Amino acid sequence: MGSRDILAVSRRSLLKGAALGAVGAIAAPAYLRNAFAQTGPIKIGFPVPISGPYSTEAQDQVRCAELAVAMFNDAGGLNGRKAELLVRDDKLNPGEAATRALELIENDKVNFLCGSLSASVQLSVNQVAKQRGVIYNSISQSDSINEKADFSKYTFHEGLNPHMTAGAVGRYVFPKFGKRVAFLIADYAYGHEMARGFRNAGKAFGIEEVLEIKHPLGQTDFSTFFPRIQAARPNVLIVCNFGRDQLNTVKQATDFGLKQQMKIAFPVLLFSQRLAGGPGPFEGVFGGANYYWGLEEKFPSAKRLNDAYRAKFNNAVPTDYGALGFAGVYALLEGVKKAGTTDTDAMIAALEALKYDAYKGEEYFRTCDHQAVQSVLVLESKPQAQVKSQYDVFSIVDTQPAEDKFLRSCSELGHG
Amino acid sequence: MTFDLILLQAFTGVALGTIFVLVALGLSLIFGLLTIVNFAHSQFFMLGAYVGVVVLAVTGSFWAALVLVPLVVGALGMVCERVLIRPLYGRGIDYPLLLTFGLGLIILELVRIFAGTEGIPFNTPEALTGAVDLGVFFFPKYRLFLIGVTAAILVALWFFLEKTPYGLIIRAGARDPEIVQVLGVDVSRVWLIVFGIGTGLAALAGVLAAPIRGVFPEMGVPVLVEAFVVTVVGGMGSLLGAVIAGLAVGITVSMTSLFYPEMTTLSMFLLMAVVLVFRPRGLFGRAGVLD
Amino acid sequence: MASETSAARGATGSAGGLKGLVALVTRHRVLCALVVLALLPFLTPYEALAVNILIFGLYAMGFNLIFGYAGMLSFGHAALFGLGAYGCGVPIAKFGVPWFLALPMGIAIAGLASVVIGWFAIRSRGIYFAMITLALSQVVYYTTYQWVSLTGGEDGLRGVNVPAIDIFGLHFDMLNPTTKYYVLFVFAAVAIALFSRILNSPFGAVLEALRENEKRAMACGYDIARTRWLAFILSGLFSGFAGALYAIHLSVVPIETLNYFNSAEVLMITLLGGMGTFFGAFIGAYVYIMLQDVVTVVTVHWQLVIGTLFVVLILFFPRGIWGSFLKWVRA
Questions:
Q1: Using CB atoms, which residue from C134, C264, C308 is nearest to B106?
Q2: Fewer CB within 10 Å, N- or C-terminus of chain C?
Q3: Spatial separation of the C-alpha atoms in residues A373 and A352, rounded to whole Å
Q4: Secondary structure element (H or E) that encloses residue B76, with its range
Q5: Which residues in chain A are closer than 8 Å to C257, comparing Cβ atoms?
Q6: Where are the domains of chain A?
Q7: What is the pTM of this model?
């Protein structure tokens, strides 16, 4: 069902792109292109990995982003000007993503870009977009994108960053479960940045790091690390990895009886992996999240998203990563409304001044690095006995409020 | 770094090695006897896990899955051999390699279409959950079980190839297909059966790995590389080589993760590079089966 | 190549029609290749895709030298392509080196790597050659992966900014997609002409003799190991060149360029087009990349289509598109 939506949108834009190329609009002067871009539909390019290992998450991002577009259009758009989502498969490959971003910018003449799931793809799209002065709202986790080297005034970041996510989880688990901490870290930027976030948060609690192990990305068997972890006798094991790695780690850790000796916490606890892994392996595991559908008890905006999603997709609920797709597009379109135009400079000013409530209370983009300042949830996976329905998998045990103080300071990031 | 820890680490490596042996066996068998590099091997592995999920859902028994999965997937492998691989015999290694690469993509995508992209929970069978006290340390029951199963499969395979008339024909067919043909044996049937056994072994490995690694469409991707490394280190086509190399790779990986964890994956390839530089045909380069 | 030259020879005497046309195309192969490539942006939905086809065509051309012409299946060419990309990209992104110095640096580093990898690998044969090149390319992959300060690690290298190229008093805006295509086309043209020269040289003849009959070539007094090594190095230089252009094209270098999947892709492109044929590399690149692009837009299950294509191709057109075409013309 979801993938059919993707098809409809993309096939249309492909034909359009082909037609444009055939007519030879390639060398159209820049001012002409701008004039066109100011009047036609508002085009948002959306490269996400809809095929491959993260297709579950990515297809949900597309579904949610379409909801944001529909909401904008149903409310009349920008004085009747409608928005349109151009979905592209980035195949989780930065090279493919860069090519697709070039297509979207040069041939489809998109007004904005939004999307991407992996950090490397996001940085690659950002590089292409900023060179060409196109606003890009990223929805992937990364610390680098806030830093001066990768940042540009066109760069916005709706996604969480590892510093705030890991910080939220760390501030919850360290005082609660003890000071002896072991780290198991996926050996790439995401893992390193998450670990740094935990260590930073741990300073205030005087944590003692008893072990650090870095494992290669995509490792399938973690058993060879467990003897050392058990020997180190930590109170808390922080596992900084993602996706299938996460599922494999908890499954095998459960088998080796690690959970009897220590608490396990991830920076991000993924809704989709929990569904794929079942309650057993995840029981009692902690982790952070940008969103959980259960937020609807507290926030009307969460209920709005869930209801729209349920109505359209067979009573299912949006996943955490899917909801990010919604928020990313929602923020851009709120910016368009505020700016009253799609002109890039006016948009940047509007987004910098914007306060918006997409799906979990108020958020805003910090001026220096355009990071979306937002709340972070701390979740615990429910044991089988407490699970009441198919999607009832986590309980929200803590919420870190949307405050500037949980981010790295602007000067730390190299901004002036 | 205590002695206990090193011992436990080595033992964990052996347990890991048995998984490597399992995935490499089928690959090595097919290469050794048919000189076909089966790039779809990893997808038969994945298919095994999925068929296992189905059998488990229908019968509720993990043990039934262990028996049925290799039969079902092996039969499917035989169909593939008949229809796709057979026209390619004697055309060098490139063409079968590419064909099976394509076949692998087809299997992967079909599974995504019919079983979804999310992955399916697969629990360790009740009787094998938990850990056993081995005196010095605790060890998961399921991994001990794996060591036992692998040993049993090896013995069965050895018996089949060395002690049965069928095995004799297979071994002879591998050495000189023409002579065997002249002697009135239908060699193409031998190849069919070998391909079936090879893919069946891959599937069995898949269902055995499911409780450890989970069941999802891409679960085969890293397996292919692991299986190749083991097969090449051991010497393509040598079953003994696959066993020794599988354990060696398992222990290498385990020991690297103790002393230099970032290098865990690379250590496999370093081992392979070193072996190939000194023994270009792997440890037990091919001279026959089970040499 | 064997088939092409014989087609050319056969046609000079008699024949006309298609056979004559093929002979003509084969005789002026560089010119023909360049004319078609010059029109490429009009044959693709967008320019960035045309650039990819150009670059992967070059890469496949280099790979074809070792695979198609020398008959050795390398599974480690991603290392050579990737090192070309990083070798060119790192100096630009991290040290502000101008592009005209960085480009040769990329080629040189890929060349150096092929000297080393080739030295280890040429002593093995067949599947073992494939596996040792794979193992060594994985070593390159992990080294690059770990060297975050220089390469960006898993995040990939960003900031390979070449916004404009000034040469011979001319200014080219590389942010304009059409201009970028034709600037890179000129680079590619030089490589294609050079490649054709190599095939026509005595070295090219030795390579062919070696592939046709190794023992006879050895008996004729050729140093087989050296010829193989040299072929590997030349192949690496072309692949590295393609990689360097890739870095300039995308302004990023993904770590995936070093992944073994990239080695598999170039193999598929070469086989698709026709191994050991001059045009095969570019035809393969065009069909493979175009097909993927179009199918990806129509369905998320694009791998099903690609997989089926491979099975059908291998079963029914094992010589690839251009190879099958040549055979059909000659028959």
A1: C308
A2: C
A3: 12
A4: helix B62-80
A5: 95
A6: 11-160+302-373, 163-289+375-406
A7: 0.88
